[in-house]
Amino acid sequence: MKRFMGFRWLMIMLLLGGCASQQVTMAETPTSPQQAVIVSNDFEDQKTGDWMARGDGTRIAISDAAAHSGKYSLYVSNRSANWHGTQIDLLKKLQPGKKYGFSVWVYHTSASPKKLIITMERIYNGEKGWDRIGEVMVAPNTWVELKGEYQVKPVKVEELVFYVEAENSSLSYYVDDVTISQVK
Ligand SMILES: [Ca+2]
């Protein structure tokens, strides 16, 4: 009888030990916080995706004539005003009060340096406006990063359209490696 009890205790101890080791294996390793990427476009799928032409007559197309990454970029041509370019609707992707980082690589083959600009067209509490996020002078035949940060106002937001424009109203240019991410 005593020997039987001893065996039973041994079984219970083994069972508890098994449970304890299982718990250790199941414990989750904490994950490091990551920047949330909202938009990421390298145009290697040869699709314009959510990008649209901005302004009457403006054309956008996938091109293999120049690329910052891979083989393809987005070519913006046939512009006739400085605000003409390419744009993306971010109303459903960005949140009021949150801050975002924007990075766009740009390129042109014009004879002299040209200024490229990124802007947010927005409507806050019924008021339309255009907020400049970043600008950069781009030398001919050189890929340059155009970047900046932008906080969406913590108000009623009815429009958020992000676009790439150029100071020169007839400049054609290439866009590649667009990244929009939430800033922590
Ligand atoms: Ca590319």
Secondary structure: elements and pairs:
Layout (H helix, E strand, L loop, with lengths): L1 H25 L10 E5 L10 E3 L4 E5 L9 E5 L7 E5 L9 E9 L6 E11 L2 E12 L5 E8 L5 E10 L6 E10 L2
Antiparallel strand pairs: 1-11, 2-5, 3-4, 4-11, 5-10, 6-9, 6-11, 7-8, 7-10
The structure holds calcium ion.
Task: Please explain how this structure is put together.
With 184 residues, this protein is mainly β. 14% of the residues lie in helices and 45% in strands. It has one helix spanning 2-26, and strands at 37-41, 52-54, 59-63, 73-77, 85-89, 99-107, 114-124, 127-138, 144-151, 157-166, 173-182. It is built from one helix and eleven strands, in the order αβββββββββββ. The protein has one domain (37-182): Galactose-binding domain-like (Jelly Rolls). The strands form two sheets. Strands 1, 3, 4, 6, 9 and 11 form a six-stranded antiparallel sheet that branches. A five-stranded antiparallel sheet has the order 2-5-10-7-8, with no helix packed on it. It is globular and about 90 Å long. Calcium ion (CA) binds at residues 42-44, 67-70, 72-73, 176. Keywords: Hydrolase, Signal. It comes from Winmispira thermophila (strain ATCC 700085 / DSM 6578 / Z-1203). Residues 1-26 form the signal peptide. InterPro entries: CenC_carb-bd (IPR003305), Galactose-bd-like_sf (IPR008979). Pfam families: CBM_4_9.
